[in-house]
Write a structure and sequence with these properties.
CATH superfamily: 5'-nuclease
CATH topology: Rossmann fold
Number of helices: 7
Order of helices and strands: HEHHEHHEHHEE
Largest sheet: 3 strands, parallel
Distance between the termini: 43 Å
Strand order of the largest sheet: 1-4-5
Number of domains: 1
CATH architecture: 3-Layer(aba) Sandwich
Helix content: 40-55%
Radius of gyration: 17 Å
Strand content: 5-15%
CATH class: Alpha Beta
Shape: globular
Structural class: mainly alpha
């Protein structure tokens, strides 16, 4: 009987579904460059739906691309889902920037739009820069950058 309970616990651990994720550019760069985030992303892909990115992340990847990374960027992005950036996300991002600015906190447009995209699809944000995302509506998962 004891081994049956252990088997059930083991099965329930395997069936645990992680939350949806939107991958910030810091995480995407680490995956692209073969850092620790690669293994973490593989574990996520084994247990969760395909992670999201948004147009901001795609633009930032291309802006910082090194020579010869083009094919790898296309392959990485093709394996992920695109979160929308539309009027609702723009409104959310603008309100955050305005409200935080009133408190003396300057947030970047790109960060606010990325966060709004994550919130709009119900995803946590995986990032190496958690301090850039102080929004209460957003769940942030710190994936140490450069590791």
């Amino acid at each position: 009987m004891g081994s049956r309970a252990a088997t059930q616990r083991s099965a329930s651990r395997r069936l645990t579904i992680l939350p949806l994720l939107l991958l910030d550019t810091t995480v995407l760069i680490d995956v692209l460059r073969g850092r620790e985030a690669v293994e973490r992303l593989r574990r996520v892909q084994d247990t969760s739906p395909t992670p999201f990115v948004c147009a901001i992340n795609v633009e930032e990847l291309w802006r910082g691309a090194r020579r010869g990374e083009e094919a790898a960027i296309r392959e990485l992005i093709s394996g992920l889902r695109m979160a929308p950036l539309g009027e609702r996300e723009g409104e959310t991002a603008g309100i955050w920037r305005r409200d935080f600015a009133a408190k003396g906190i300057t947030l970047k447009q790109a960060d606010c739009l990325t966060a709004a995209a994550a919130v709009s699809v119900g995803a946590h944000l995986a990032t190496g820069n958690a301090k850039d995302f102080p929004m209460n509506e957003l769940v942030v998962e710190e994936w140490p950058a450069g590791a």
